[in-house]
Design a protein that fits this description.
- The chain has 2 domains: 217 residues, Periplasmic binding protein-like II (D-Maltodextrin-Binding Protein, domain 2); 99 residues, 3-Layer(aba) Sandwich (D-Maltodextrin-Binding Protein, domain 2), CATH 3.40.190.10.
- By secondary structure, the protein is of the alpha/beta class.
- It is globular.
- Helix 1 packs across helix 11 and helix 11 packs across helix 16.
- The strands form 3 sheets. Strands 1-5-4-6-13-7 form a 6-stranded mixed β-sheet, sandwiched between helices.
- It has 16 helices and 13 strands.
Length: 325
Amino acid sequence: MLLAVFTFAACSSKKEGTKEQTQNIRIGEVTHSLFYAPLYVGIEKGFFKDEGLNIDLQTTAGGDKTMTALLSGGIDIALVGSETSIYVHQQGAKDPVINFAQLTQTDGTFLVSRKKLDSFNWNDVKGVTFLGQRKGGMPQMVGEYILKKNGIDPHKDTNLIQNIEFANIASAFASGTGEFVQLFEPTASIFEKEGKGFIVASFGNESGTVPYTTFMAKESFLKKDKDAAEKFTRALYKAQQWVDTHSPEEIADVVSPLFKDTSKDITVKVIERYKKQHSYATNPLLDAEEWKQLQTIMKEAGELQKEVPHEALVNTKIAESVIKK
């Protein structure tokens, strides 16, 4: 497994003349995207370091790989779609994966057309090749849910391709596969700038509020390292509040060092889009209504064997304690 690894903060720090050890926390992010800006703000602004945490950030490229890394002990915390915790639960895991802090609350993908359209109607995707995301993942399930909401059966009305690895979807479209593709930022905006594609719709505007990307850990970790989980969530909440109260330009200034291959104007545009559609959760609490919407989407996609109670796979106590303080 190829991982992009970023390590932040020192291994130790000194406070009032005494040496205080920081705790290393290994985070696996499903992809490296400006969709996760609050996490990067927390890292770059030193909010995690202030809590005594050293963040070892690994890009684990895809939901399956991210969950495999978590279950095998390769990472401590996964940043991935909440649906993955339900899949693990459906497989009868003895050490369940628990969602404890939400990062994003809408879909983060955009519908990109190969041709520039004067106007767009969802019916435009009928009868053409649609390059979707991985079957069973949040992007694909939300995409199908929205298409169906607009009267389109993606499996009957389009030539749906969903067997391409997550990391290769953009390059497949760039090389000529499909008339439409579902892409995350900043790839969507970069394609638009380069004339390779044109954003025609936002899945996030139509998805409703869902636990699209959350931080989760094995139940055993949350019991053993409850203090670390609370420190992590406290730093995250501080970052979420900072993002909520600052401009896209200010946020871009902070996170740009982690996106050296993305121009400043694209970075600002992407963050502006996500803020406008309220993609960034302003606090880490994953509530019951969002959980219900997630399972509605999963059921519609045929991926939910049985409804799972909110309290079974979501720990709200950590987020609630952090928000109240």
